[in-house]
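Hi R.,

Here's the chain you asked about this morning:
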Amino acid sequence: MKVLALDTATEGCSVALSVDGRIVARFEAVGRSHTERLMPLVREVMDEAGLRFAQLDALVCGVGPGSFAGVRIGVGFTKGIALAIDRPVVGVSSLAMLARPALREGARQVVCAIDARMDEVYFGAYRADRDGLPEAVLDARVCAPDQVPALGGEWHAVGTGWARYREPMLAATGAQLAAVDSGALPIAEDALAIGLARLRAGEGHDAAELVPVYLRNKVALTLDEQRARRR
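And here is the predicted structure, written out as tokens:
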């Protein structure tokens, strides 16, 4: 199976290609330059594998939550290719992508938080399913750091939200942290692993059905709201 995966939901821009089990991948921290860097990275992995888009069997895309603009870029790019070559797609949560490396390394439970700006975090919690892939134990959400749900027990914490809001989230969750990786970003290789499993299970769908997962419908605070928060 030949599957291309990409993610642009955060400051990272990443691409991964599976060619019958062989993985070719690229990652760059690009800030807000996803539009400029995504296609060159895709071309690099496709050229290295000697593939054309028409030879792909499916595509996988990180659908957020994350930067509104970043998520739209990745979803739009994926839909464009998939519609042009008439291939199925799979959308993968940024939070699930964050959880996979820790689960693969033996963590039993992973709590993920991405800094959502506006004094909020995108928050999710995962355990490994029977295949070792992330399985959500609660619905992903966006909320203030001191409003994340109680969890208890021992968890492995990942994501940029833990760099900025560790103390209020610890107090709210009541969790004991076995380890913290506050610099972790979602990467396409993890989306690829999750997406391949879902494709094998017959869960690929038409590109027209691929939609971003924002978790909130507001991009920025108004000036009055910014003043109120400062007060």
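One quick note: The chain has two domains: 2-93+186-209, 94-181.

Cheers,
M.
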